[in-house]
Design brief:
This protein has helices at 147-157, 168-176, 218-222, 245-251, 280-285, 306-311, 468-471, 560-568, 578-581, 586-591, and strands at residues 20-24, 59-60, 72-73, 76-78, 86-94, 105-116, 233-239, 258-262, 289-293, 319-322, 331-334, 340-343, 361-366, 376-387, 412-416, 420-423, 433-438, 442-445, 456-462, 478-480, 483-486, 491-496, 523-525, 546-550, 607-613, 617-627, 633-640. The chain is an alpha+beta fold. The chain has two domains: 20-295 and 336-387, no CATH class; 455-640, no CATH class. The strands form seven sheets. Strands 1, 5, 13, 19, 20, 22, 24 and 25 form an eight-stranded mixed sheet that branches. The protein starts with 19 loop residues before the first strand and ends with a strand. Residues 1-17 have low confidence and may be disordered.
Length: 641
Amino acid sequence: MLRFVAVLLLAALVSVQADMFFHNPRGSNNRLNEKTASRRNNNRLFDSQNNNRGGYNAGDAKANAAANERQQYNMKYFASGSSGESHMTVEWTNQHGCGDNDNVNCNVVLQYMCQPDTDSAVPETLRNGFATNKQGYMKLASVTEKKNRADARRRNSVKDDRGLHEKFDWYDKCFGRERNMGLFTADQNLKADNGLGYSSSIYTRQNNNGGRSGYECPEERDYYPYWHPSPWKDIAVLVHDTSLCGSYQSASYNVQQKYECVEQYPNDAGRKHWSRWNNQQDCTSNGGQWLAFTNYLEKATQFTSQAECQASSSNGIQYVWGRPEGEEDEQCLVALDAPECLVSPTTRVNHLGNTPDGEASRYEWTLPYFPSGETQRCVMRIRYNITTGDYDPQTTDFKSNGDASPVKNSPDVDIVAGVLTLPLALNTAQYGRTFQDRSHVMKMMPRPAGLESSTIYNLNVRGKRGNLQQTIPAVEYDFIPNNLEIKDGDLVHVQWTGSNTHNNNNAGNSGSGKAGSDRSNVVQLEDRLKNYPLSFEETTMWTNAHVKWIYFQDTPSITAKDLVINLATSGYYQCEKTATCGDESLETKVAANNALNVDLNNAPASYGGALIQFPSGEYFYICTRNNNFTNRSQKGRLLVQ
């Protein structure tokens, strides 16, 4: 059998609980809609390795807790246009340190996956789910399984009310495929039999007993770049040593085809979705085809031949002819760029906090441009990987396993030879470790007509209810970015989401308004040092501001006063007058004795968004609810130059 080696991604010291948490977009840490301080199911969608109290609930669209998934709120971002970029500030915290830090070898990998939101041909749709159970899995029981049995297992395993990122077939092929025997596993004894008579890709040094988290493949999770096709697309690799950038970028599935063994069911029943064989020699020797697969942004179905496909690349769009992961036929695909590779933000070891510039770790993501113009349903993923310097993670492989391992479980080490020996609390399953977080499902939308060349910046809200002690390892409320500098003519997409079930029970629930509820709004301040907002008549922020799109009107007709009312009430009042927005106006609701609660208790937890072009100037703004001076201060600055 061929043995092959992958570049190692991961590592960590067992004595440290080194967590990784998304704050924008809001990371789930496997939470969904819990009313408890701790998540209910740490294996709901993925293996995070994080503290159970981390993460944010999925957003609610209205003022009450969602009664089903349709009543949740998916954040909606405008994709980049044909010539205009859309920018999202991605923010996270990681505990064990990274960047320009001599105490740790590390990297951070940012990825995403998308599928067309309107594609009814995709039965396993990306979703948050509504139940906190993980998806079911009826195990692959025989290497000679027939197609009707495989279809029945899939049909009986996947539940509509449970969250889903990777598909059933992705985990099933991981369960059935032999693990990469070329990897470094130290002195760990990985389980040797998945029930089919061999050790498969569900067993890794970090997951030596083959535990399942959603439909994630443990081997793909724990190593990067992965050597097989994957449903994930790379955004960026943030490293402590930029000399590694070339190897990461060239081996990324974004730009390098990956191979997989493809076998057929007996009696010409079609292509099997899995194979035991993980290398060309074993594959072809056992009757399979060792085929190349190509990663892609989206399909370009308008081009039906290779010649037409490759000849159509223009205006920055590169088309490539290739075979999508999990499919049989080659077709025209929109190509991906290599991931950006930068030095990771510098953070202190054992400190779940900020970088030297006073902000949490951040990356400015330029959202992709989808030539089809279809709305996409997406999820974002971040992995934080730390390793010891006791071995070189780039070159250490299976030859250093077992007794040859440079690190050992719970070793006794000589401090003074023959005189003093002390034990180390070392677990080699974690001496090279990956932590992970993922967003809730979001959507990427085509831009409104006429805005293809505009630059868009997303202005969101991070954090959740509670004081510092109650929210950690999440964070308290703030605008993100809270210091936004743009050029005249650029657009700002203001949008946020929140939950109605962020109760911490006995852990406490500090904050204004209804317990357990996230709320935000936007009103102008004269200066960021002040806390009293300006009345509409005193404001400058809204003067000559142009609303290009708002969640309830594709062609906005609202006035500056309407916009102020809308943002100040988190959309509870869409506008001032009934003639403009009907029953959702301030005029109608007040007349019906259905006025806004002053603490925003009856306002929506999520704001559906407004795309605004602001006039030149410097502006300050505040959330009226989440500010009581000494405890919370949700403020922001916008500079339009």
